[in-house]
Amino acid sequence: MTHHEITMPCTESDIRQIKAGDTVTLQDWLFGIRDATQIHMFDHGREIRLDLKGHAVIHTAPNVRKVPVSNSCPTGYESVCIGTTTSMRMERFSRPLMEREGVRIIIGKGGLGEDSRQAFQDLGGVYLAIIGGTAALETTWIEQITDIDMDDLNPESLWQFKIKDFGPLLVAMDSHGGSLYDKVKETMTDRRAEVLAKMGVGA
Amino acid sequence: MTPDLDAVEEAAKRLYIQALKVLPDDIKEGFQRLDASETDPTGKSILATMIQNIAVAEETDNLLCQDTGIPIYNVTIGRDVDVDGYALKQAIRKGCERATKEYPLRSSVVHPITRENEHTSCGRKVPVIGIDFSDAGEVLEIEMVPKGSGSENGSFLKMCIPADGVDGIKTFVIDKVMEAGGKVCPPTIVGVGVGGTSDLCTKLAKVAATRPLGSVCDDPMGAELERTLSDAVNSLGIGPQGLGGDSTAFSVQVETAATHITMNPVAVNIMCHSARRARATFTPAGVEFGF
Predict the structure, then answer these.
(1) What is the reported pTM?
(2) Looking at CA atoms only, how far is residue A29 from chain B in angstroms?
(3) Chain A residues lying within 8 Å of B239, measured CB to CB
(4) How confident is the model over B221-231, as pLDDT tens digits?
(5) Predicted ipTM?
(6) CATH number of the domain at B5-20+64-148+275-290, please?
(7) Angle at B156 between CA B154 and CA B161, to 5 degrees
């Protein structure tokens, strides 16, 4: 188990060094993305203005407050509470995010599936597990909402955040086919029959 | 007692914000209990971060979780309360909308087909407002539950048949907890509805999932099922956030209702670890806020 400090954006070789079970702390930049953002990007063919090449995206839709545009709030949005949503709904967008936009890191909760695992392996990407429901803490890792695109989808806009010490996050899926979720799935599948028998099912 | 509807509107607003910020004591105690018994190092570290988040939310006066949920208000009206029910529902809706605009909160509510967001946390038939009546006298209670979507997507119904018996119910619950895995933000409260019609069964599961920890089903058969299933789900190894460990659920909670001779329905509704709820109690002495 190794801890990695990664300043964004990163390269494929940075990603290939990371193994499932390691931890990662990100610095500088992070992009927020969600169901509607990706439905519009990939199903409706919308182009985005922001460059995601080598970057990390987090599955989120933040709580924000509208404020006058200033140096500290260049978008006119101030963060209220920024957290993470369930990733699996967005499973089919992992590969296009990497192929079309060059994304290297996906951050979310609950894990991604087999297609994403394969995409991470083929293209050099990782999934970092953040702890769902701990948004008050996550918000303290975000310094500013720096830019925003596709804001007609608000709160499911494409957000750019300036971050500081974002983590540590657990590497749950790596670029070598490793997935902590697969191990848990094996464990529970192995235990199912015993658990049911102990309750007298089928006795 | 005739409740002041302006006070109801204010309460509906305050309850939404309070529920999003402060967890009930029974849930906090539930975290301590799980933390003390968790044997998996990853699970233990995740629980520690969750406990830290509860403290950070209170220290920074911030929301626990970004998901403001679908707002649910459960109203219980005592026998000596005289209230215009229609106006009461309007007041609650107005309070919910004001919480969203004035705080401001993220409105997580959209039209189911156009996906249009009115940015009020309101829409067709939302907030969900449930009305019930109690034997109490001059007491009006409003419970607010912001139901997060990650766990609400972990909702399931099966119309088992009588020949499936209790085994069918137990197997369904285990299989659905496995299917939900980490997506529902474990450790969870697994709400189980047994019996009734399909809609009542689903409703019972939601009631069970939003009951305080430590409460017990008032049907002894349901209470027995709670004990058995609680041990069982925590033996699966899913753990906090589905990353392995003993703490898959704070508890499995069951509600039962009579059903038809040909039916054996079972429903599962899951509450995430951010098991948020808040309560306002109106009496002639005034309004009190709690859980």
Answers:
(1) 0.95
(2) 20
(3) 184
(4) 999 999 999 99
(5) 0.93
(6) 3.30.1330
(7) 160
